[in-house]
Write a structure and sequence with these properties.
The protein has 218 residues and is mainly alpha-helical. The protein has 9 helices and 2 strands, in the order αααααααααββ. It has a two-stranded antiparallel ribbon. Helix 1 runs antiparallel to helix 2, helix 1 packs antiparallel against helix 5 and helix 2 crosses helix 4. It is globular.
């Protein structure tokens, strides 16, 4: 349990790492679901590293101690200090993904007896979603919040279209529910966004109006 005061404005660096980390998370899930090891573990490391850095940059945008830091345990210690929280239950998980990261280059010395498998996706889901929620809670503006992280990746769902990214996110994911994304969809629809009117105009937040051109006779 932790208590923080959400920032009144979000910084670009924090949001950039949140966006990149979420994209890596979706990629890692897809790789795990397709049985692509150890690439899935490497991408999982990327997602966890970036989501933790997103939290730290949200709290202190000007910090300069993260650029050359990639060790998950050391970054986790910084997050624990800033949020005054305890993430020690993820120590084994972080060590596992740290080992996975060794496989990013073929000439790295590989650890003996290392195993991976699709079941490790559950470990990724648990830690990423918790860290993602910490990061989202630091954003005070709902307009910014619902354009960030997982929410920014599901815009096709807001448009009532088939959403491949949302499907990848929800497939065999015990740590995330559709209701989470539905809340964002309701938020935007209530403001008149992602809804196509009778003239074929769809308002997209931050992007103006998208016009759907219909072919005569169709």
């Amino acid at each position: 349990m932790f208590t923080v005061t959400p920032s009144t404005s979000s910084n670009d660096k924090g949001l950039a790492f949140l966006s990149a980390g979420t994209g890596n998370y979706i990629s890692a899930r897809l790789l795990y679901l397709m049985g692509q090891f150890p690439d899935a573990g490497v991408m999982a490391h990327e997602s966890i590293e970036k989501i933790m850095k997103a939290i730290l940059y949200q709290l202190k945008p000007a910090r300069r101690d993260l650029s050359n830091e990639h060790n998950l345990q050391r970054i986790k210690a910084k997050v624990e200090k800033e949020l005054r929280c305890n993430l020690s239950n993820y120590n084994v998980v972080l060590d596992y993904f740290e080992t996975c990261y060794i496989y990013r280059y073929p000439d790295n010395t590989k650890p003996p007896g290392f195993n991976s498998g699709t079941n490790y996706i559950k470990l990724l889901d648990a830690i990423f979603i918790e860290l993602h929620n910490y990061c989202i809670d630091l954003i005070s503006s709902d307009n910014v919040k619902y354009k960030s992280g997982l929410y920014e990746k599901c815009t096709e769902f807001y448009l009532d279209r088939h959403d491949n990214k949302l499907q990848i996110l929800l497939d065999d994911n015990d740590s995330m529910e559709l209701a989470t994304i539905e809340a964002a969809k309701t938020f935007w629809h209530n403001l008149g966004y992602y809804k196509t009117n009778d003239e074929g105009h769809t308002h997209i937040p931050g992007a103006g109006v998208v016009v759907e051109h219909k072919i005569k006779g169709s």
